[in-house]
Amino acid sequence: MPFLTTLFLRLGTMSRAPFGAVVLLLSVAHLQSFAVPPDIKTLGPIIYLTDNLDEKDNLGYCIDTVGRGLSDRIHLHSCKPRGGDVEFTYDNKKQRIKSATFDNLCVELRTKRAIEDDAQTLKIENKVEITGSEFKLVRCRNKMMQRFTYNQFSNQIHLTGADNFCLVAGSESQTAGPFMSRSLELAHCVNIRPEYKTWTIKKAAK
């Protein structure tokens, strides 16, 4: 019988079980829901999904530029062992996701509907249109659309000023030569399963 089915059948008897036993049983069930981590081989700094999802070689999914080399389009790609365009850093002070490979280029949210810049976007929660939004790699500037907050408790990346919006992996993967890729999207956090919105920020290996 599956473990969780057994767990539910036992709930009726928990009132008679010692409190410690109940806690232990629930803890084991919780452990089974943890992410399956990728086997990261990239030495450089990367931002990757904590869960490997379906990456066939267990390399994980990293923030990456589309295609080979420099591109202004951003998606998720297998974390390449040799690094290169999958190398990104997070600047906690400036709240930027910045390319570690290409000079002075940062991730920026672009939306289908034009959004007033800077001061007006402080009310961003009421202005963002998720449909048609995408991420670009552009020159680093002091713009609200380039500001992202990494929550060290939930390990989610939010659009600064709009905590209900998260950076998430697309629901479908596709082949990308010998690797795999997914879209990088903006979504309401509450609607997304943890494995699609939980990130790890890794610094360069010393």
Q: What do you see in this structure?
A:
The chain has helices at residues 3-10, 19-31, and strands spanning 46-49, 61-65, 74-78, 88-91, 96-99, 105-110, 134-139, 148-151, 156-159, 162-176, 179-188, 199-202. It has 206 residues and is mainly β. The chain is built from 2 helices and 12 strands. The N and C termini lie far apart (47 Å).
Order of helices and strands: HHEEEEEEEEEEEE
Largest sheet strand order? 2-3-11-10-9-8
Distance between the termini: 47 Å
* Backbone shape: globular
Helix content: 10-25%
Number of strands: 12
How many alpha or pi helices?
A: 2
Q: Give the helix/strand class.
A: mainly beta
User: Strand fraction band?
Assistant: 25-35%
Query: Which runs of at least 5 residues are low in confidence (pLDDT < 50)?
Result: 1-33, 114-123
Mean pLDDT over all positions: 80
Largest sheet: 6 strands, antiparallel
- Rounded to an integer, what's the Rg over CA atoms? 20 Å
